[in-house]
Design brief:
There is one protein chain. The protein is mostly helical and about 500 residues long. It is built from 15 helices and eight strands. The radius of gyration is 56 Å and the shape is flat. The termini are far apart.
Length: about 500
C-alpha cells in the first residue's frame, strides 16, 4: 500500500513535470512567435522608411546634378564669351600694331630722306667753307698754314710777355710773404710773453668790501702781499681804484688761483702768511679739479671718448685761456662740432674729425712754457698720448703751415676759421675797428675810376661805386679782382672780405 502511494506520487510528479515542461515550451513558443511578428513588423517599417529616404536622396542627387549641370553650362557660356572678347581685343591690337608699324616705316623713310638732305647740306657747307678760305687767302695774301703760323707766333709773344709780368708779380709777392713771415715770427714771440689784448686777457679784478681791506692785504711792512705774490706767482696791484684790487699775470691758471685765494681771505678775514699758504694750497687743488672737470665735460659734450687723462687736463686748462677775447675751450668745442659736420659732408670719419677739432689748439695750454707755434706744440703733445695719425695731421696742419697738407688739415683749418670769424666770436677795440674800416675804404678809393666806397657789415664787405664813363663792365670785374689782391696783401683780418663793385648807367630823356 505504501509502495503504490509512492509510485502514484512519482508518476503524478512525472506527469506534472512533463505537462509543466510542455506548458513552458508552449509558452516560450508563443513568446518567440510574438517577438518574431514584432520583428517582422519593425523590419517592414524600416524597409519602408529606407525606401522613403532612398527616394529622397535620389531626388536630392538629381537636383544637385541638375544644378551642377546648369552651373557648368553657365560657366561654359561665360568662358566662351570671354574667349570671344579676348579674340576681339587681340584682333584690334593686331590692327593697331599694324598701323603703328606702318607709321614707323613712314618715319624711317622720312629720316632717311632727312639724312640725305643733311649730307647734302654738309657737303654744300664744306664747299662753301673751302671757297671762303680761298677768298680769305686771296684777300689776306696768306695761305691757311701761314695764317696759323702768324697767329701762333703772336700768341707766343703775348704768352711770354704775360709770363714775364707774372714772374715779376710772383717775385714781388714772395718778397712780401717773406716780410710777413718775419713779422709773424716776431708776433709769435711777443704772443708767448704777452696776450693779444693785454687789458682783457692778463688782468683780473677782485672787489673789496672796503678800502680798509687794502691795508690788511698789504700787511705789516708788506709781508702779506709778498707772501701772496710768492705763493701764487701773480702780481697784486693795489692802487687808488676804490674797493678793488687788480691781479696781473700772463698765466690764466695762476690768476684764477690768486682770485680764489683773495676771495676766500677777504671772506675769512684772517690774513697772514701761514693762512695764505694754506688757502693757496686748497685753491690750487680746486682749480686742478675744475680743470679736469672742464676737460671731461668738453669731451663728453662733443662726443669724443677715450682721451688720455693728460690730454683731458691740458684741454681743461684752455678754459682759462682767451684769444682775441674768445675763450679757447669754447672755440675748441665749436671747432669740433664744425669739423664733424664738414667731415660728414666730405664722407670722412666724423669721430676723428671731432677729436682733431677738439684738440687742435691744445698747444695753447703750454705755449708760454715751450718754444714754437701752438700747432707744432699741440702736435707733439697729441703724438705722445694719441696714436691716431689723422688726428695728429689735423692738429699739426690746421694753420696750413706744413709743406704738405692733408684733407684733415684742410677740414680743421676750415672749422677753425669758421669758429674764429663768426660774428661776435672775437672782440677788438673801437680804435682798431675804425682803423680797419678806414683802411678798406682807402684801398678801394686808391684805384682810378672809383667814385665812392663803403665798408659795411663790420668790415666783412666793401661796396664800391664806380664812374660809368671811366670803367666798363669788364673793367668793373678787373677792378674787383685788383682790389681783392691789394686787400689780401695789405690787411690782416679774420675770415673773408667780400668786394662788390657797382656800376650804374642811367639814360634820361624828356618827352615834349
Amino acid at each position: 500500500m505504501g509502495i503504490e502511494i509512492v509510485l502514484a506520487i512519482f508518476f503524478a510528479f512525472l506527469i506534472g513535470a512533463i505537462f509543466g515542461g510542455m506548458a513552458a515550451f508552449l509558452s516560450r513558443q508563443m513568446v518567440f512567435n510574438r517577438k518574431l511578428r514584432i520583428a517582422e513588423r519593425k523590419a517592414a517599417r524600416i524597409i519602408v522608411e529606407a525606401k522613403g529616404r532612398a527616394e529622397k536622396v535620389i531626388q536630392e542627387a538629381q537636383g544637385e546634378s541638375q544644378k551642377t549641370k546648369t552651373a557648368v553650362e553657365n560657366e561654359y557660356r561665360e568662358r566662351r564669351n570671354e574667349l570671344h572678347r579676348q579674340e576681339t581685343r587681340l584682333t584690334q591690337k593686331m590692327e593697331t600694331l599694324e598701323r603703328k608699324l606702318e607709321g614707323v616705316d613712314q618715319r624711317e623713310r622720312n629720316l632717311i630722306n632727312r639724312e640725305k638732305d643733311i649730307d647734302t647740306t654738309r657737303n654744300s657747307l664744306e664747299e662753301l667753307k673751302g671757297k671762303q678760305l680761298k677768298q680769305l687767302e686771296v684777300i689776306s695774301g696768306m695761305t691757311n698754314d701761314e695764317a696759323k703760323k702768324m697767329l701762333l707766333d703772336t700768341m707766343e709773344v703775348e704768352i711770354r710777355q704775360e709770363g714775364a709780368r707774372r714772374l715779376r708779380q710772383w717775385e714781388s709777392k714772395l718778397k712780401e710773404e717773406a716780410d710777413e713771415k718775419s713779422q709773424e715770427i716776431l708776433a709769435q714771440a711777443i704772443q708767448r710773453s704777452a696776450s693779444e689784448i693785454v687789458a682783457e686777457s692778463t688782468v683780473s679784478t677782485v672787489p673789496l668790501p672796503s678800502d680798509e681791506m687794502k691795508g690788511r692785504l698789504i700787511g705789516r711792512e708788506g709781508r702779506n702781499i709778498r707772501a701772496l705774490e710768492q705763493a701764487t706767482g701773480v702780481d697784486l696791484i693795489i692802487d687808488d681804484t676804490p674797493e678793488a684790487v687788480t691781479l696781473s699775470s700772463f698765466d690764466p691758471v695762476r690768476r684764477e688761483v690768486a682770485r680764489l685765494v683773495l676771495t676766500r681771505l677777504i671772506l675769512d678775514g684772517r690774513i697772514h702768511p701761514a693762512r695764505i699758504e694754506e688757502v693757496v694750497g686748497k685753491a690750487k687743488e680746486e682749480v686742478d679739479a675744475a680743470i679736469v672737470n672742464a676737460g671731461e665735460q668738453a669731451a663728453i659734450q662733443v662726443g669724443v671718448h677715450g682721451l688720455h687723462p693728460e690730454l683731458i687736463k691740458l684741454l681743461g686748462r684752455l678754459k682759462f685761456r682767451t684769444s682775441y677775447g674768445q675763450n679757447v675751450l669754447t672755440h675748441s668745442i665749436e671747432t669740433a662740432y664744425t669739423a664733424g659736420m664738414i667731415a660728414a659732408e666730405l664722407g670722412a670719419n666724423v669721430t676723428l674729425a671731432k677729436r682733431a677739432g677738439l684738440l687742435h689748439d691744445i698747444g695753447k695750454a703750454v705755449d708760454r712754457e715751450i718754444e714754437g707755434n701752438h700747432a707744432a706744440i699741440g702736435a707733439d703733445i697729441v703724438k705722445q698720448w694719441d696714436k691716431s695719425a689723422e688726428v695728429l695731421k689735423g692738429v699739426a696742419e690746421h694753420h696750413l703751415e706744413t709743406s704738405n697738407t692733408s684733407v684733415w688739415g684742410f677740414i680743421i683749418s676750415a672749422a677753425d676759421a669758421i669758429s674764429s670769424a663768426r660774428p661776435g666770436a672775437r672782440r677788438e677795440s673801437l680804435e682798431n675797428y675804425i682803423k680797419r674800416l678806414k683802411a678798406l675804404e682807402d684801398i678801394a678809393n686808391s684805384f682810378k675810376g672809383v667814385d665812392k666806397s663803403y665798408a659795411i657789415q663790420a668790415g666783412r664787405e666793401v661796396r664800391i661805386l664806380v664812374k660809368p664813363e671811366d670803367i666798363d663792365d669788364l673793367g668793373a670785374m678787373r677792378l674787383a679782382r685788383d682790389i681783392v689782391k691789394k686787400v689780401e696783401e695789405s690787411l690782416e683780418y679774420p675770415g673773408q672780405i667780400r668786394v662788390t663793385v657797382i656800376r650804374e648807367t642811367r639814360a634820361v630823356d624828356y618827352a615834349k
